[in-house]
Amino acid sequence: MAKSAPQPRRFPALLRQRAASFGHAFRGVAAALRTEVHLQLHAVATVAVLGLGWYFGLERWEWALVALAVGLVWSLELVNTAIEAVVNLVSPEYHPLAGRAKDVAAGAVLAGAIAALVVGLLLFGPRVWALVAE
Ligand SMILES: Nc1ncnc2c1ncn2[C@@H]1O[C@H](COP(=O)(O)OP(=O)(O)OP(=O)(O)O)[C@@H](O)[C@H]1O
Predict the structure, then answer these.
(1) Rounded distance, CA 71 to CA 67, Å?
(2) Is CATH 1.10.287.3610 what the domain over 12-133 is classified as, yes or no?
(3) Looking at ligand 1, which atom is closest to the CA of residue 87?
(4) What is the model's pTM?
(5) Mutational pocket test of ligand 1: of 73, 102, 103, the residue with most ligand atoms within 8 Å of the beta carbon
(6) pLDDT tens, 27-38?
(7) The dihedral sign for the CA sequence 105, 107, 113, 119
(8) Residue 105 Cα, ligand 1 centroid: separation in angstroms?
(9) Ligand 1, atom 1: nearest CA belongs to which residue?
């Protein structure tokens, strides 16, 4: 008997699947936020930067830079957390490669954080300086 051709999935099913994927992603962020002190510090820094941006009335392009900088640091910290979890899973004992993987992942976060710091200094430095010098 001839097999019937696979049916295209219906729109509601696709939508449900996408919603589930978003759910997994949010669950990942929430789990990382609960366990990672660095991410909690990023959350505090993010709120502070948003407050400063509102206080100084940043221009649209400046908000775009802030969004990119904040997104970069959060993304790298989340990837670092994922790499740490996988390394702990596959190499709970000491191994030079496990150590290197963690060090390099931490280095990626450091590089992103330095870039974000430069953006923050360029955007807020002169404004804060003007306030202090008044
Ligand atoms: N299995 C391992 N084998 C070899 N070295 C390791 C191993 N696990 C950790 N290390 C070394 O210890 C360092 C700290 O690892 P750890 O897992 O404590 O992460 P962390 O830097 O404390 O991260 P966080 O504070 O974000 O959880 C690593 O960067 C690495 O140099």
Answers:
(1) 6
(2) yes
(3) 1
(4) 0.87
(5) 102
(6) 999 999 999 999
(7) negative
(8) 10
(9) 94
